[in-house]
Design brief:
Chains A, B: Pathway: Amine and polyamine biosynthesis; putrescine biosynthesis via L-ornithine pathway; putrescine from L-ornithine: step 1/1. Two copies of one chain form a homodimer. By secondary structure, chain A is an alpha/beta fold. Chain A contains ten helices and 16 strands. In chain A, strands 1, 10, 11, 12, 13, 14, 15 and 16 form an eight-stranded mixed sheet that branches. An eight-stranded parallel sheet of chain A has the order 4-3-2-9-8-7-6-5. In chain A, helix 3 links the parallel strand 2 and strand 3. At the A-B interface, helix 4, helix 6, helix 7 and strand 10 of A face helix 4, helix 6, helix 7 and strand 10 of B.
Chain lengths: 377, 377
Amino acid sequence: MTSQRILDFFKTRQPEGPCLVVDLDVVAGNFKAFRHALPDSHIYYAVKANPAPEVLRLLAGLGSNFDCASVAEIEMALDAGATAARISFGNTIKKERDVARAHALGVNLFAVDSHEEVEKIARAAPGARVFCRVLTNGEGAEWPLSRKFGCVPQMAVDVLVYAHQLGLESFGVSFHVGSQMTKVDAWDAALADAKRVFVSLAKQGIELKMVNMGGGFPTKYLKDVPTAQAYGQAIFASLSRHFGNRIPMTIIEPGRGMVGNAGVIKSEVVLISKKSDNDEHRWVFLDIGKFGGLAETMDEAIRYPIRTERDADDMGLCVLAGPTCDSADVMYEKNMYPLPLSLTIGDEVLIEGTGAYTTTYSAVAFNGFEPLKSYCI
Amino acid sequence: MTSQRILDFFKTRQPEGPCLVVDLDVVAGNFKAFRHALPDSHIYYAVKANPAPEVLRLLAGLGSNFDCASVAEIEMALDAGATAARISFGNTIKKERDVARAHALGVNLFAVDSHEEVEKIARAAPGARVFCRVLTNGEGAEWPLSRKFGCVPQMAVDVLVYAHQLGLESFGVSFHVGSQMTKVDAWDAALADAKRVFVSLAKQGIELKMVNMGGGFPTKYLKDVPTAQAYGQAIFASLSRHFGNRIPMTIIEPGRGMVGNAGVIKSEVVLISKKSDNDEHRWVFLDIGKFGGLAETMDEAIRYPIRTERDADDMGLCVLAGPTCDSADVMYEKNMYPLPLSLTIGDEVLIEGTGAYTTTYSAVAFNGFEPLKSYCI
């Protein structure tokens, strides 16, 4: 999975300390795969997955739109060359003054999932377009999807009617099937819900125009995942099934699926030891852990592929942990990780599939360790 | 729990966005309480709990020593006025080149828990003092203690003999009873283990001189915790029981107990909403969450006191969540949090007991949100 360009970078640059390298060619390839798989959908890249300026500039140049979680992310997308018309303020939890700032920057598309948020937008961004997020169940997703975002479909109807009453443009419905979603048909039930909201609104004279089908597109970690093409076919079939020949404008918001497999973290083995002479398994400590960028190993949710120069040797299970003095800084323990028995202190390991949700998750300076460095090539 | 000085700071300075304010008078009071409770122990402040330069300078001035997790923390302690003789490199997981850097800075006291780490220190810091960390069970601790640090006592004996053979000074034993330890007698079993290691080493002609009793001293969150005095009495009783009238030099490493109750985070209510009309409970969203400094709410481990201006009103349980687009950014959901039913969007809330393990845990820029700001007064 590590591209030759990334291998060459590590070999020639030999950067000190843990770092992420992102291959922009892979990102460009992913963008094209999404466009090809869902040619009628508008791609809104989820900036939070990896907001590196080089990634944003590349995607802006390729014609991507941007799903932003904060005013800072909106400003980064604008700096990268996106126009405000290509930006969605996709966070359902916004300070009213941040709505006003976004609106002043020209942003006109906002996510909501409550009457209270609609009121803020009506006051701070009068006349703007809003879409209401509907709760889905997240079954089949590898990163936990809580009930944090969205409301039940019946309430979404009320929220969108209320937005209309307050002079906003009730534009559509959004949902999120859960991150690292490995079931291609996961979008079907949510699209059925979306259609029901469309119908209910139409009965009240409000014509919705858009379905934001969110992200959730997986990246390859250890297990193979379906292709963008397979997702595209399943989603198009569901759209046709539920909307017939009146398919609305659609949006997708890939983040992990856009950049995950484009990045590789280089780390170093700091210590290999046992806790007693009888211990069957080794503890392997790396110079990066849960607080240095691998936050998604929380509850051992995301299991990254790890590559070493000794992978042809015999393998043995080990506990994998980070370098801090925090006892919670352990990546894989319940489900131990196979690594070469010949692995040695000082060895370099490559943690693949780390292009998404690593750099910005990294702690500022926990235990005095620097945040994860990042290079785009 | 919020001091008048902190309340006055918020009132006069009105800082924008979430921020932590630390009252240095409270830190000084905590230091004096530890010194009074354990007058014969050397206090090594766990820098990772809060490495604010003002905190380090204050403690250096009061005569504290420093437990450091990295070279960066060692440099911060030196910058704050500590001499190298007052610094312990307490992380059992160190790169050999970091051991060499620390040694070059004059540090002469290192933690180990394995033969492999002893070898690094023998090469990079020849002749230095080492202490070996012994595994304890952590029962009664509120922050999870894994098996990450330490080795079984019998192996500690071997590790310290090995250190002696490699020309290091086998100086003592350390252990950690688990963070936010609420049982005052939790140190007893570990001190019994420490004594056994002393005896085994003495039989081989090696006289250990020090027991590092670690941290674990709690700060007051919602429940009352025993006083430093109560811990001091229990620990002194255990030391006497196990070591008789030959009590060795002892070290304690308070972090949370030194700064936890000195800090208060000011946050703002961004949204209060429900997911359906039938929802019994509200969701309350703050402008700080798990990725903005409240990482210790992971698995709902640490439960902070929250204070609002409406606390005299009727209370109702709510789910408490952070402002990011990450579905894992929920602080309290399984065990919901009581907040005033009159709480309103835009209200200020004070999150108390947040002086430890907040600022440096904060993500660099997750979702574009700035790291937690901090003021020491």
